[in-house]
Amino acid sequence: MTLEVQKILEGDQLSGARLISLLEKRDRRGIEMLQAIYPRTGQAFLVGITGPAGTGKSTLVSRMIGHLRGRGLRVGVVAVDPSSPFSRGALLGDRIRMQGHETDPGVFIRSLASRGETGGVSRAAREAALVMDAMGHEVVLTETLGVGQGDVAVARCAHTTAVVCIPGMGDEVQAMKAGLLEIADVFVVNKADREGAEELAHLLETDVVMSRPPQGEWRPPVVRTVALRNEGVDRLVDTLFEHRRHLESTGRLAQRMAGSEFHFFRQLVLEMAAEALLTDSAELARLRDDLGRRAIDPYAAAETFLKQRLLFKA
Amino acid sequence: MTLEVQKILEGDQLSGARLISLLEKRDRRGIEMLQAIYPRTGQAFLVGITGPAGTGKSTLVSRMIGHLRGRGLRVGVVAVDPSSPFSRGALLGDRIRMQGHETDPGVFIRSLASRGETGGVSRAAREAALVMDAMGHEVVLTETLGVGQGDVAVARCAHTTAVVCIPGMGDEVQAMKAGLLEIADVFVVNKADREGAEELAHLLETDVVMSRPPQGEWRPPVVRTVALRNEGVDRLVDTLFEHRRHLESTGRLAQRMAGSEFHFFRQLVLEMAAEALLTDSAELARLRDDLGRRAIDPYAAAETFLKQRLLFKA
User: Fold this and answer.
1) At a CB cut-off of 8 Å and minimum separation 6, what does A224 contact?
2) Nearest CB to A297: which of B35, B298, B313?
3) Over the stretch B272-286, which tens digit does the pLDDT of each residue have?
4) Hey, of B35, B270, B296, B303, which one would you mutate to test binding to chain A, going by the most A CBs within 10 A of its CB?
5) Which of A50, A58, A200, B56 holds its CA 20 to 30 A away from the CA of B71?
6) CB of B13 within 8 A of CB of B2?
7) Of B212 and A191, the one with more pLDDT
């Protein structure tokens, strides 16, 4: 084991940050270090916090950090949301939301550039969480933007996912019903002191949660918070741990983790396949020309191309 | 050529809709039909309309349809946004936004289920646009939600992409600057009668547009609209065609189309590879178990797995 790997396992923040940067750049050494620390992962409680911009996720995460620290837990934060103050660095108004956590040695916050393909982001987020896990953080919070397709991928890495909504989002919630149900283990109605909070909570409790086919015994509870005033956040943290205990007691945690690791394995296979198959070549340049002139159709081209490169095994 | 293919090429809406449904289900017959019509595609002007929920994209699209129809053009619309009234069907309040286009034989609107992986959505959107193209629509508008990673993929199929913002989105625009620049050929400040419209337009015109490295001669113009009152929409349509002419006159249209077809080819190769490599098997089930127990690390597992299946050719 190299010294750098040792330092990561001891929780050294600089070494952890360096590894996450290497991984973001898809540096080969980063992958090797991740493989070295991998056996020490699988301990942290991985929590996803997702919801559209403007729902106050970052303030909520900041408050959650406070409560988790109060319980003596070390907390890692992966911010994927480009509009997050964690991502932008602590700007003027954001200092309030950071609550001084940036100087607490028990808190490790990293933001990820979210440009590029969705697959890349969800991979980088998962890898950052693995690093924080290996560093000894008992809880890793991953903050992601929106309730779109990409978030499903990020949610797949989490043990427990909280979806944050605010009053006035009723229409959006209705439209997103299916997507929400796919990922939410807990719903948060933040800014619950605003008008329309009860309607939204009611909508979530009835229409959304009740329409979910019972899986095990868990029905996503709806937690009301006012993150700015630190209200309801302790209960939210309790609820997340309740869900974790539920997963453990029903054996679904092991199932979820296996699913998550397998999903990641598939993602890696496809990434490596893309690299092996689609790295620039004279043949690909020719194909690009032919495709541009519409001299061949892309379906036939893809099929022929692949047939020459895959060992189809039964 | 089958009768069904013939009918699509003649613009029959029922046949077109049937094909799009087959393609959404990834039905083999759908792909074959798409291959049959493919030589007749490449004629339509493909326009992407993207922006967060609540920016009035659907109303804008509806108004654009009106203006395009007024110019005697047949219009196809692909709605990927799950919150779009086009997607939800014409609900009560949405009838206004539909403007009766649903009964105009020169307008063909299809919404796509946007659940599942981003790749699947962008593929389905592209294929639906191809069908509309082959049906003889001179313009195909694709409406997508948000300015996230998935939208970059959808934008890649369009010749011209308009990004819709509304007053009050300054922070979001700042945070998304890089992503916006990647996809916007035209910016739309919709609801331009609201307070803050000039600030937003100014922000886009200075900070965002001016920070863009000059590519050819085009700098994304900022068009102000009030879609609800049908203001500025004609100018928006003019601007889109201006961009189209710019692409044609500089040779960048051919370049963009080649890039887009090649991107699609890559996507197909990876999808087919995924199917060939990762279809359920006893070996994969064993791997899933091993991964779940963390008995192997996913990186090593993926590498080994792939090595046995790929013919690496130089």
Assistant:
1) A188, A189, A192, A197, A201, A232
2) B35
3) 888 888 888 898 999
4) B270
5) B56
6) no
7) A191
DSSP state of A310: B
Q: What residues contact A289, with CB distance under 8 A and at least 6 apart?
A: B258
CB contact under 8 A, A310 and B308: no
Strands (E), chain B: 45-51, 75-79, 107-111, 139-145, 160-165, 186-189, 222-224
Per residue in A59-77, pLDDT (tens digit) is 999 999 999 999 999 999 9
pLDDT at A111: 86
How much is the pLDDT for A44? 97
Give A277 to chain B, closest Cα distance, Å. Answer: 8
Give the chain A residue whose CA is nearest to the CA of B86: A175
Of A262, A256, A13, nearest in space to A131 by CA: A13
- Which residue type does A84 have? S
* Nearest chain A alpha carbon to B82: A175
To the nearest whole Å, the CA of A69 is away from the closest chain B CA by 28
pLDDT digit string (tens) for B119-141? 667 788 999 999 999 999 999 99
- Interface touch B310/A312, C-beta < 8 Å: no
The DSSP call for residue A56 is -
Chosen for mutation from B266, B271, B286, B311 (greatest number of chain A CBs closer than 10 Å) is B266
Report ipTM for this prediction: 0.83
pLDDT at A97: 54
List the helix and strand counts (H, then E) for chain B. Answer: 15, 7
- Is it the case that residue B148 has pLDDT exceeding 70? no
Greater model confidence, B4 or A147? B4
With cut-offs at 50, 70 and 90, classify the pLDDT of residue B90.
very low
Q: Report DSSP letters for B169-218, one per residue.
A: -HHHHHHHHHHHHHH-SEEEE-STTSTTHHHHHHHIIIIIHHTSPPBTTB
Number of Cβ within 10 Å of residue A209's Cβ equals 17
Residue A285: closest CA among chain B residues belongs to which residue?
A: B262
Count of CB contacts below 8 A, A vs B? 205
Alpha-carbon distance values, B90 to A203, B108, B226, B254 (Å): 22, 14, 21, 37
Domains in chain A, CATH or no CATH each: 1-39 (no CATH), 41-252 (3.40.50.300)
The residue of chain B with its CA nearest to that of A281 is B314
> pLDDT tens digit string along A263-306?
999 989 988 888 888 888 898 999 999 999 999 999 999 999 98
Q: How far is CA A1 from CA A4, A5, A19, B152, B299, in A?
A: 8, 6, 15, 41, 18
Annotate B252-290 with b (16+ C-beta within 10 A) or e (fewer): bbeebbbebbbbbbbbbbbbbbeebbbeeeeebeebbeb
